[in-house]
Design brief:
binds magnesium ion, binds adenosine-5'-diphosphate, alpha/beta, 249 residues
């Protein structure tokens, strides 16, 4: 198995407004293999978002290194895409133009941009909404667009920060299934932060359990269950309970 991302003794220290050090991440070591689907769970404030931001290259570690295929990561790369929690669509752009945003930054011509964007609009099942504006869409649809916008740049790695957190239970289950399809068909590597233990057990091959103050990796749990996963499987319930207990400790 190829190591895709290596996180080597990474620490992140922020300064509080009063000037104190806040150790958001303490000695994080982790290998992410190619085509892994990893979920990260942990209490609020344990550094989950910080960890994704470091891997995305949006922020740099205070110490330690992150490698992407043996290359030190120091700035954002096209190979690593991010989907944020709050969709972050541009309200003045249509769905199609929101999806094509990254391609526009790259300087791709309009025709090519639109063709590629339409392809991903199709994949997320929203072909008839290309001219709609974000305010005309439900939360679930906006989230689909945000996912398409990340996918259109063809990243090898997809970082997702609680992407389904604001969705109703039904839409959430629907999008979980779609994301698994996309992951399987396109051989992506996914790092997915979630508050939901159920979501982690449903989606991932590995669950990284973090603890708070300072943010550390408490345990990495392998999920050995066939897909599509069956929530009625006793193993499913057992693992969910184990994780809930770990998070309560
Ligand atoms: N830009 C920042 N400046 C100062 N402190 C920050 C900043 N970003 C995050 N933190 C602090 O770092 C810790 C981890 O935050 P975060 O990664 O957002 O946690 P999580 O996503 O797990 O809820 C928290 O204590 C938070 O207050
Ligand atoms: Mg967060």
């Amino acid at each position: 198995m190829n190591t895709c991302i290596k996180i080597d003794r990474v620490e992140k220290i922020f300064k509080s407004q009063e000037g104190f050090d806040i150790k958001a991440l303490d000695t994080i070591n982790m290998d992410v293999n190619e085509n892994d689907f990893i979920c990260i769970v942990g209490p609020s404030g344990c550094g989950k978002s910080t960890l994704l931001r470091l891997i995305s290259g949006l922020e740099n570690a205070s110490s330690g290194d992150i490698y992407y295929y043996n290359q030190k990561l120091t700035k954002p790369t096209k190979d690593i895409g991010m989907v944020f929690q709050n969709y972050s669509l541009l309200p003045w752009r249509t769905v199609l133009d929101n999806i094509g945003l990254g391609l526009e930054f790259e300087g791709k011509p309009k025709k090519e941009r639109e063709e590629l964007s339409r392809h991903f609009l199709d994949i997320i099942g929203m072909a008839e909404f290309e001219k709609a504006y974000p305010y005309e869409l439900s939360g679930g649809m906006q989230q689909r667009v945000a996912i398409a916008r990340a996918l259109v740049n063809n990243p090898k790695v997809l970082l997702m920060d609680e992407p389904f957190g604001a969705l109703d239970a039904y839409t959430r289950i629907l999008l979980q299934r779609e994301l698994l399809k996309i992951w399987e068909l396109n051989k992506k590597t996914i790092l997915f932060v979630t508050h939901s233990v159920d979501e982690a057990v449903y989606l991932s091959d590995k669950i990284v359990v973090m603890s708070n103050k300072p943010g550390q990796i408490k345990e990495i749990i392998e999920v050995n269950m066939q897909r599509p996963r069956d929530r009625a499987n006793p193993l499913y319930g057992k693992l969910t309970e184990k994780l809930l207990n770990m998070l309560e400790e």
